């Protein structure tokens, strides 16, 4: 199996330069092209190349504040990877893939969704919380920009934060609420337009996957009823936040949800 340490380190260095505040010659398109140029020819090497690559991107997103321009720059880079030509042969686990599918990125995303964890040390808890919020802000930006179309993770996060009793883990209250606010802020409009209003018919497996949390008594999946419930819960939980930043983000997200839904209903009448 080939060793891609040097290539991946070079890409990481270029990404770091592109994310900095100073003007850089490193463009998202040029970095994406390097990723394609360095892509291994042997199928057995693909996972050991793409896995660490996406892990690097995720780590950079986790380290970039949810409202920092670096988040948008990372989204632009992933978008350029998505736009790479379809003529490059990419085989993973025996299947033919295209760059537009962002192969293995979804698998790496799913490695990040168990949590957030609670910690006794205040500094460690703050680090965990920031990383969790930043990651989901990045994921929401990808969906909101149409780079990805992965709606299972945001639904699970909204269920976790807005459909469960958060009093059992008070240290994580603001983390859950801020995560929900970031999901709505960066992908709520497209979520409403593509998932909530044109409600999909779910099979039995999907009904179990996307079932309601203990506080919501409605149907599984994305529905207008669930959207309204989330909006109300954001307002309710905003008043319990220990941070003004989180409180304001939650109230802002709730207001956005109300406005978007009002406009949608007006357009249908």
From TrEMBL:
Pfam families tied to this protein: DUF3632
InterPro entries assigned: OpdG, Oxopyrrolidines_Biosynth-assoc
Domain of life: Eukaryota
Protein name: Uncharacterized protein
Species of origin: Apiospora phragmitis
